[in-house]
Design goal:
Layout (H helix, E strand, L loop, with lengths): L1 E5 L2 E7 L5 E8 L4 E4 L7 H11 L3 E5 L5 H4 L2 H7 L4 E5 L2 H5 L30 E3 L4 E2 L2 E5 L8 E5 L4 E3 L4 E2 L5 E2 L9 H4 L4 H12 L5 E3 L6 E2 L2 H19 L2
Parallel strand pairs: 4-5, 5-6, 6-7, 11-14
Antiparallel strand pairs: 1-2, 2-3, 3-4, 8-9, 9-10, 10-11, 12-13, 14-15
Length: 243
Amino acid sequence: MRVTRNNRLYQFTFMMPNFFPVSCYFVEEEDELTLIDAALPHSLKGIMKTAAQIGKPITRIVLTHAHNDHLGALDGLKSKLPDSKVYISERDAKLLKGDATLEPQEHQTPIKGRVPKPGKFMTKPDVLLNDGDRIRSLTAVSSPGHTPGSMSFHDTRSGALLAGDAFQTQGGLAVSGRMKLLFPFPAMATWSKETSVSSARKLLELKPTLLAVGHGAMLEHPQQAVAHAIAEAEKALHDSAGK
């Protein structure tokens, strides 16, 4: 496990195996910690140890989306932190239960990636999130594409954006669904490339000062690079449509 700190944000990076980095985050508040994502099953020990070193309780477990590499330690965390509240988007709560059916208004393409099988996770969410909901210093931002209910979280104090898999930085900065040969896995697990690009534009409008993602290093002052990644993804969609 590697821990990287940027102001009040702590990034935990775990490997699955050595070439597949998976990150989750602590957002530090005055008197408590919010955990963003639950990484892998073996991440539990490192998360709990770091919280003890910081000296603040983990009061919330907030999930960006319902893929197994973002949920892994969820049941273990809830067992050790029974009073902590679990948050997920209202839409991806269905995926957490193992229900991968699509809503009528959604792109009718199969949901990809490692979605939990029914009954895999015993933990049930306490709070179902919608666009604009507040979680202490964080604002929830609906950013579907990687999954139908993907959420990002914007820190109103610092401008940091915790974007889950809406972007990747491992293998090169890319919008979810845009293939990077050095790290193709987020693209392979993306449900709707078109929706991902729309969400990426929405997230850029927040003018993030820091981009924190599920796969790859944090990126400071990311706006120009994000704009370039969006343009690259839009061109790829246009080129694909013209074939």
